Protein: Transglutaminase
Organism: Rhizobium tubonense
Amino acid sequence: MRLKINHVTEYRYDEPSQFSLQRLRLTPLSGAGQTVIDWSLKVEGARTEVEYDDQFGNRISLVSHDGDQDSTRIVATGEVETHDLNGITGVHTGFCPLWLFLRDTPLTKAGKLTKELIRGVSGESDVGRMHSLMGAIHQTVEYLPGSSDTETTSEQALERKSGVCQDHAHIFISAARAMRFPARYVSGYLLMEGTVDQAATHAWGEVHIAGLGWVGFDPANDVCPDDRYVRIATGLCYRDAAPVSGMRIGTPGENLTVTVSVESQGQTQSQS
């Protein structure tokens, strides 16, 4: 199908900001299961310093401003044609070796609760075990907006038994690595049933399975990503794939507003 996406991020500062440097991961790339038809990334209140691909293959726009600034507005919009590949994005590419995706991060370090979780995982194949893991997380951790933040670890979310898609993804990644599967975090967009407007982007996990390559699993919804999903960035955890990250000098506070809309432009013709 063809998905139309509009993503607006706006920062309003309590006092004029003197300097900021922000790393934007807001440009999807064509690849397995998705073709970018058109895409625009515009920034008001800052200028683009450089664009590059990082070590994970994410397209980065580095933007900055100097001099007093009251706000920054970032608008990413475009259309992406998607196809259902049962979550399979295929062979590993990029600068990072597969073994790197076995490495823990502070947000995904497996602890006692993660190890208890994987003891209940079963399946006759690697794919079956990952489906079992996804289902266990979906059943154990309630989707509850506001119950966590960007610094919540996978163990903390398991202890609270609540979180958002970011937490579900971190738990999945932590458990998969503890089971010796290379795993990575994916940020992107999801077409939701019955609504166009959303409060944030989406997140899920991918594991590398011999014979298949990278395969996606979304514990928040208990499904493998299909043609409702658009991938933007990947990394070891949220910090590597956050839509916007950076630093600011000159003001202690800000008001952040994020609006996301994802809507279908109709089914596309199947490819032979």
In short: The chain has one domain: 2-264. The CA atoms of residues 87 and 216 lie 5 Å apart.
